[in-house]
Specification:
By secondary structure, this protein is α/β, with parallel strands linked by helices. It folds into 2 domains: about 180 residues, 3-Layer(aba) Sandwich (Rossmann fold); about 110 residues, 6-phosphogluconate dehydrogenase C-terminal like domain (6-phosphogluconate dehydrogenase C-terminal fold). About 50% of the residues lie in helices and about 10% in strands. The chain has 13 helices and 8 strands. An 8-stranded mixed beta sheet has the order 3-2-1-4-5-6-7-8, with helices on both faces. Helix 2 links the parallel strand 1 and strand 2. Helix 4 packs parallel to helix 5 and helix 7 packs across helix 11. The longest helix has 29 residues.
């Protein structure tokens, strides 16, 4: 979606101060981009003193500030684990100046949207999910160009003010992202299938191989690119992903049930040596290639 021209005001204001709370992969990468592309001053906040120090040393942020200084920020980014984000959003909205924009970047949206819905500054808040990332974590994982060409999702846009939405669109357009809009509950349902389930699958594939194959050298010698790409997400941060799985439990359990059913059926086809049925099952699944190639265009 192309941003209306009036959105340009915020991205062209170089004296803007943005406070990023949570200086890991997403928060740190956002900080790098906002410094580089918009020349904003980035104020960092992190509960982990070591992460805060690393972010400052790496040049990810310009300054580390206490939470009590949040009222000097024009924009606040919440980039912490999703189990803590709903309460922090309330605390942030209590602290900000009247015209500040607040958005979170967590991968579950319904809980945080429900938590802030009655806040007097709800209109200042935008529920955002930039679909981008790697399997790495911490300030060292922050990189440039992480968001280029990716999709950003804004949830429950009708509960945010027009100005807040326009500012957010302008920011993510500057990050070269394409924004779409969704209901927060629908977002969590769909993301359970297309993102959360793939992480669970990767973790469990890694776990299965480690349990069956006791010789690490065999894993090293025999693991091809297929195994490496499939298990890549198993290197992701457990501290980040366990709250996501629990927070989106209802949708994830539904997706897991469907996944287990398909695995059970596939197992039966192998056991019964039903070669044609196996081929048909895999051929039907090949259609996912067309969908993914269409997304990349």
């Amino acid at each position: 979606m192309n941003a209306p021209s009036q959105q340009a005001d915020i991205v062209n204001t170089k004296d803007t101060k943005v406070a990023v709370i949570g200086l890991g992969l997403i928060g740190g990468s956002l900080a790098l981009e906002l410094k580089k592309r918009l020349q904003w001053t980035v104020l960092g906040i992190d509960a982990n003193d070591s992460n805060a120090s690393k972010a400052l040393k790496l040049g990810i942020v310009d300054e580390i500030i206490p939470f009590s200084s949040l009222n000097q920020a024009d924009v606040v980014v919440i980039a912490i684990p999703v189990n803590h984000a709903p309460q922090l959003a309330i605390d942030v909205l209590n602290m900000i100046k009247e015209d500040a924009l607040v958005f979170d970047v967590g991968s579950t949206k319904e809980n945080i949207c429900k938590n802030v819905v009655k806040h007097s500054k709800r209109v200042n808040f935008v529920a955002v999910h930039p679909i981008a990332g790697t399997e790495f974590s911490g300030p060292e994982a922050a990189i440039y160009n992480l968001f280029d060409g990716k999709v950003n999702i804004i949830c429950d846009r009708e509960l945010s003010s027009k100005v807040s939405i326009e500012k957010t669109l302008a920011i993510f357009e500057a990050l070269k992202m394409r924004t779409i809009f969704m209901d927060s509950a629908e977002h969590d349902k769909h993301i359970a299938y297309v993102s959360h389930l793939s992480h669970i699958s990767s973790f469990m594939l890694g776990k299965t191989v480690l349990e069956i194959e006791k010789e690490e050298q065999n894993i090293f010698d025999m693991a091809g690119s297929g195994f490496e790409s499939t298990v890549r997400l198993a290197k992701s941060s457990p501290k980040m992903w366990s709250p996501i799985f629990v927070g989106n439990k209802k949708n994830i359990l539904t997706s897991l049930d469907e996944y287990i059913k398909n695995l059970t059926e596939f197992r039966a086809l192998i056991e019964n040596e039903e070669t044609v049925a196996l081929q048909d099952s895999m051929a039907e699944t090949n259609y996912i290639k067309e969908i993914l190639e269409g997304i990349k265009k």
